[in-house]
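Re: the pair you flagged

First of the two:
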Amino acid sequence: MRKISLYFVFLIFSINVFAQDFRPGKVIMLNNDTLEGFIKYQSDKRNGNECLFRNLSNKTTNIYYPKDIKGYIFKNEKRTYQSDSVWVDNYMDFAFFEKLVLGKINLFYWFTNEHNSDYYIQKENSKLIPLPFSGKERYVIKENSKKLQTIFTTNNIDSLKKYMSDVPQIFPEIEKINYPRHSTMINLVEHYNYLSTGVKNKNDIIKATKRQQFICAGIEYSKYKTRWYEIWGGIKYSINPSKKNENFFITTGVFYSLAGDLSDSIKIKIPLSVEYIFSQKKIQPYFIFGYNFYIYKEPPFIPVAFIGLGTNIKVKDNIHINISTTAQLGILPLPQWYNSFNILSGVKLKI
C-alpha cells in the first residue's frame, strides 16, 4: 500500500512539473494580421508583461512583449489584452493592459507590485490615465493616545471625479470606493457610461472573470497508523477568493463516518484547506494543505493537520473527476493514531 501511494504521489508531482496551461487564443500583430493558436494562461502579472504563443502548425513557442504586438485574446475566457504605454513615476512603461469595460470611458487593468495603480481609464481616445492608490502607516490620535493606522490616499477618487465631472450624480458612488476592486470599478464605469450616454452596453462590454466555485461529493478511505480504517462520505465546497489568481482556492465541507473502526466515537469531520491548481487544462494537478476538525462528544473537536496532492480530470466544462491523496499528521500532544493516509475520489461540479 505504501509503495502504491508513493508511486501515486510521484505521478501527480510529475504532472505538476510538466503541465503547461495553453489555451485557445489569437495574437494581433503590428500590421493587424491575426495569428490563431494557443496562448499560455499565466498570472495577471505575467499576462501583463509577456505573451507566450504557440501556433497551430507546430509546437514552437514564441514570446511576444508589449512593443512586439498590438495585443492578444483568450477566446474561451473572453479576456482581451491591449498593448499600450503609460507614464508612471516620471517614466514611460509598456505593458499588456486587460480590457474590462468599453464605452465613453474605457477601463483597463494591469497588475504590478511596483506601481501604486492597478486600474487605468481612457476617455475619448486619450492616453491611459492611472488611478493611483496607496496606503501609508501613520500615527493618529484616538482616545487621547497615538495609534498606528494605515491611511489610504484619495488620488484615485480625485481622478475619477475629474474625468466623470459631467455626471456629478455619480460622485457619491465614487466616494464609496475605499479599496479598488474589479467588481466595484467595473460597476462604477458601466454606470457612468450608461448615465452619460443612455447606452447600457457598447461593443459587448467586457465583464470580469467570475469567481469560480465548485461543489464535490465523494468517498474517502482513511488508513491509520494503528491499522484502523475509516470510510467517509461527504461534500466539499471550493471558492476562488482572488480574481488576480484563478489557481488558488479555499475549500471546506463536511464528512460523515459511514463505516470503520472509529465510527462509534467519531461521526463527523470538517476539512478546511487551501488548494493551488498548477494547470487549468483537462488534467489539473493541485497541492493541498489544511486541517481536519474531528467532532467528538468530549472534547467538542480536535484539529489535525494534513498535506497532500490531487488532480481534477475535466469531463466537461462544469464536470470534473476529483482524486486526491493526503497524509494526516498527528502532532504532539495528539495520539499517534491520528497519523493516517487518505484517498478521496468524487465528482466535482462547477456552480
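Second of the two:
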Amino acid sequence: MGETSWRDAHGRVVDGGCADPVLVRWARGAAGVAAAVSSPDQAVRRPWLPACLAAHGFTHGRVQARSYLVVDERVDDAVTVTVLAWPAADEDGRLRFDDLGGGREIGLSLAALRDQLYRGWLRRPPRLGDVFAAALSARARAALKQQRELAWDEPLAGLVDGPVYDLSAEARRAAKLAFYAGVAAIHASEDAQRWELLPKADRGGEPAPVRRLLPGAEGVPGG
C-alpha cells in the first residue's frame, strides 16, 4: 500500500493518487474511525434512537426492526442503495455497525428515486450519503436473503412496508462526530465553547420528515 493510499472501512485499498499527504492522513484516520465504529467491543449499547424518531413514537425496541438505507453510489442514471441492519449507539452516542460486510445493495434508477421518493417531499435532489429509516417489504427481504445485490425496476411502493423517514441530517452529524473524535485533539469544554467547536443544536424533538409511498401516487407525499 503506497504513501497516498489507505484502506476503507471494508478493508479495500483506496488510491489517493497525487493527493496531498496531509489529506491522505486525514482520510486514513477517517477510515480507521469507520472501521472502529463497525467493530464489536464491550461498550454498553442499545439501538440508536435519534430524537426525531422518538418524536414519532419509536422506542429502542421498535426502531431496531427498521433498516438503515444509504444512497451509496451513483453511476450515470443508476443508483445503489445499501441496506444495513439498524445500528446501535454506545454510551457516547456514537453509531456502531456490527456487520458492515453483511450489507445488501439495491439498484434503482435515479429517475425512480427522484420522482417516487424525493419529489414533492424533500427540497433537494438525491445525494450520496442520504440516509433513510424504513421497513423493507416481505418480498424485498426474501429476495435479499437469496442475493446480496437486487435490481429493483418496479414502483418503490413495493420495496418498503410503511413510512420512510429521512435521517440524513442526523446521520451526517453522527459521522462528523465520529470523524472528529478520531482525528482531532481533545479540548476542555470551556475552550471548545470559546472557540465555537461545540455542535449546533439539532432538530431535538422535532419529528423526522416522513413519507408514505402509495402505489400510483408518484410525487405525492403521504402522512
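The longest helix spans residues 21-38.

-B.
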